Amino acid sequence: MKTASRRRPLSPHLQVYRPTITMMMSIAHRVAGVSLYLGAPLLAWWLFAVAMGPSEFGVFQAFSETWFGKIVWLGYAWALIHHLLGGLRHFIWDAGVALAPRVASAMAWGTLIGSILLTVLVTLAAVWIAGARLV
Q: What angle, 0 to 180 degrees and rounded to 10, lies between the N-to-C axes of helices 54-64 and 21-52?
């Protein structure tokens, strides 16, 4: 009996499951968490720059005012807000509430849309308060 010539079946989940909004938001929640972890040195740099004085803070501010720095800060703000809203969604689910598929999907969409809207609002507020330019 030759075992090498027989084809093994694929795992059934590869044919059955389709990506859903709750699955995608679960993945996004994890990505946001990793982003927050990786972005923590950026916050530490900011705090050290403030503590070290004007010249060191000037270096940090120069980075933050570049197009790359603005994208990094925008991404960090989105990750923070998205992770917060996703955590609240999971907290509600852990209480045994809103577990019906339609409600869970609506909450997942709310997490995505809410995180984008809140990020835009926070960014606009920061730009307005700082009197800076967005681009």
A: 150
Pick the CATH number of 21-130 from 1.20.210.10, 1.20.1300.10, 1.10.10.10, 1.10.10.920: 1.20.1300.10
Taking a C-beta distance cutoff of 8 angstroms, is the pair 42, 72 a contact? yes
Q: Which residue has the tokens 């570049």?
A: 66
Say how many residues make up the chain. Answer: 135
pLDDT tens string 33-72: 999 999 999 999 999 999 999 999 999 999 999 999 999 9
Residue located via tokens 């590869």: 14
Q: Which residues contact 22 (CB under 8 A, 6 or more apart)?
A: 104, 105, 108
